[in-house]
Amino acid sequence: MATPVRDASPIVSEVFAAVRKHRLVSVIRASEPAAALEAARAVIRGGIALVEITYSVPDAPSVMRQLVAESPAGVVIGAGTVLTAREASLALDAGARFLIAPNVSQAVAGAAREAGIFYCPGAYTTNEILHAVEAGAHLVKVYPVGVAGGPDYIKVIRDPLPRIPMLAAGGTNLDNIVPFYAAGCVACGIGGALADPALAAAGRFAEIEARARAFVAKAASYTPAVPASG
Question: Are 100 and 82 in contact (CB under 8 A)?
Fold first, then answer.
């Protein structure tokens, strides 16, 4: 079973527990801060507890700050597409409790480590995944596995890397999240299949909320296999 790969601060332990419990991280991208804020509110109303505001959103830290201030207990706000130490610092100042990135950055890893914040960098090959762990990853975002390898790829790399917690991201959708869980992923990051920026731009937040509810129901339907006793 996948386990955390670094000694955990209280925040890291809290975020990792939420990831394991809910198995979904909503990825919010939008062309305007207001649209991103409303999309995030929609996924929260739909029952998703982990909300990633990406730096593709203009003035992303202001959106994070607003969500941190207003979100109900149990909702965890974090930052995505964190590429630099400055972006990490601004996100932390805004109250982000996790940092997610498509790559491994020693600067971002250092900022997360210093602040005791949950760090989830992106990697794909086994070599990249191990590099992410060495940099201090608590969870590794295997990206873009939804469109490059799918659950079968996770099954293959779990053999040599059985204890590294993995998040499936990039091309994940309602049909493949359960196969990703069954293949060994702790959770899935959901972007366009959930909070599609086009829906946010059109003000179709009720549809985003409905999608969130569907993802929550699908994730709840997964029952981990019980290992056979020998």
Answer: yes
Q: pLDDT by residue (tens digit) across 66-107?
A: 999 999 999 999 999 999 999 999 999 999 999 999 999 999
Neighbouring CB atoms inside 10 A of 34's CB total 12
Contact between residue 137 and residue 158 where contact means Cβ atoms under 8 Å apart: no
Query: How many other C-beta atoms lie within 10 A of the C-beta of residue 152?
Result: 10
3-state class (DSSP) for residue 24: strand
* 108 three-state secondary structure: helix
Structure tokens at 173: 């959708």
Hey, what are 148's tokens?
Answer: 């490059």
Tokens at residue 108, please? 């971002």
Phi, psi dihedrals of residue 46, rounded to the nearest 5°: -75, -5
Instruction: Kindly report the pTM of this predicted structure.
Output: 0.95
The Cα–Cα gap between 208 and 45 comes to 10
